[in-house]
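Box 3.1 A note on notation
Throughout this textbook, protein chains are presented in two layers. The first layer is the amino acid sequence; the second is a token string describing backbone geometry. Keep the layers aligned when reading.
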Amino acid sequence: VELPRLRVAVHTDNGIMTPTSAIQDVVRQAAQALKDAGMAVEEACPQALARSHTLAADLAAADGRAWVQRLLAHAGTTEVHPWLAANLSPAQGMSVAEFTALLEEIDQFRSAMLAFMEHYDIILCPVNALPALPHDTWRDAFRQGAFSYTQAYNITGWPGAVVRGGTSPEGLPLGVQIVARPWRED
């Protein structure tokens, strides 16, 4: 990989939940480091990201959370920890018609993301809208879309990595997410 030939799209806000200013600053500093290394860095955000949080949440609940029961069975237990029971409440499952419509929406999302990547090799963005959260406080952050920054690339299945880029005013680590095109782990 020739670093000066790489084209980088960078964004500090995906339009779902605005990250803290410290997180935005860390992403900007990382973008400057890539620019200093000779990469072409451009402020750009895929419009399709606006749908990522809803798609991820719908997919996680599509089977009424039967996937949680399968994971427990695979682990050899049927006993659900109270934390898991409180945080992954049962969901109303979808009909097959609703599920196939959701899969079509996910395919449209992936197509739009791939079209965006025609102009870039890498996306540089926040990992989360917030620094690390205290235990048992993630539900509200999840509902507001704080984790949508990684959910988007879980849906695409693209290779990504998280690198520590700094420290929050509270002393917590702040990461920067680097996402590449499909099949470009290099």
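The CA atoms of residues 26 and 61 lie 33 Å apart. The mean pLDDT is 89.
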